[in-house]
From TrEMBL:
It catalyses: 2-deoxy-D-ribose 5-phosphate = D-glyceraldehyde 3-phosphate + acetaldehyde. Pathway: Carbohydrate degradation; 2-deoxy-D-ribose 1-phosphate degradation; D-glyceraldehyde 3-phosphate and acetaldehyde from 2-deoxy-alpha-D-ribose 1-phosphate: step 2/2. Its EC number is 4.1.2.4. One of its GO terms (molecular function) is deoxyribose-phosphate aldolase activity. The keyword Lyase applies. This is Deoxyribose-phosphate aldolase.
């Protein structure tokens, strides 16, 4: 299938996750997202820090755009589980549609797989009717075996999406990692459709097409919808509009 630039935009979670984000900068960011929509380049969602949840929900109230937040002590998932869950609860109370959390890499490395699964179950328990995306941090995991294991544990815990990367401390998405994640999703027999989010380093139309080709090869054309596939990006939409 040949994808247009406008179609690619419809898969994007337009992202602002900067340490210097403020009410004013986020208002400008949301204004840009609405402007893209007016110019017929609508994205799937915006993704921001949870303290901006209410602002984003309010600003986008007349838009079709979803509001996603990172939560659970992003980007490292370290801290007390109670505070990580509370952060999610506050965002959900503000009305967000989607929450992106990071899989507990320390417990994964320690071999405490039940703990990893139980923690994700606790997050999903807060949002049975909302979308939970679990970030694997594939740039840290590195090997296909570890990426496969993390994918399987995240899905076992109830992830609605598995996501490559935070885009922070470690390398972002790679075609190799996405291939492994797509294979794991394809093997699921539970009947639940698990989505895939590619995040970190997708900046051009050509980048996006390469990832789409890998995903479609393993998961087929019916999977190629923003309900199941996302790209986390901050510059991609503007690049597509200007190319």
């Amino acid at each position: 299938m040949t994808w247009t630039k406008k179609q690619i935009c419809s898969f994007v979670d337009l992202t602002s996750l900067n340490s210097y984000d403020s009410v004013e900068s986020i208002k400008s960011f949301l204004s840009d997202a609405l402007d893209f929509e007016k110019k017929n380049f609508p994205v799937a969602a915006v993704c921001l820090f949870p303290n901006f949840s209410a602002l984003a929900v309010n600003e986008l109230s007349n838009s079709v755009l979803k509001v996603a937040v990172v939560a659970g002590n992003f980007p490292n998932s370290q801290g007390f589980l109670s505070t990580k869950l509370n952060e999610c609860e506050l965002a959900l109370e503000a009305g967000v549609d989607e929450v992106d959390i990071v899989l507990n890499l320390g417990e994964l490395d320690a071999g405490n797989h039940d703990h990893v699964v139980d923690e994700i179950k606790a997050f999903k328990g807060l949002m049975p009717n909302k979308t939970l995306k679990v970030i694997l941090e594939t740039g840290y995991l590195k090997t296909a075996e570890r990426i496969r294991l993390a994918s399987e544990l995240a899905i076992q815990g109830g992830a609605d999406f598995i996501k490559t990367s935070t885009g922070k401390e470690f390398p972002g998405a790679s075609l190799e990692a996405v291939e492994v994640m797509a294979q794991v999703i394809a093997e699921q027999k539970s009947g639940k459709k698990v989505g895939l989010k590619i995040s970190g380093g997708v900046r051009t139309y050509e980048d996006a097409l390469q990832y789409f080709e890998v995903v479609e090869k393993h998961l087929g054309k019916p999977f190629m919808t923003p309900d199941l596939l996302r790209i986390g990006a901050s510059s991609l939409v503007r690049n597509l509009m200007n190319e």
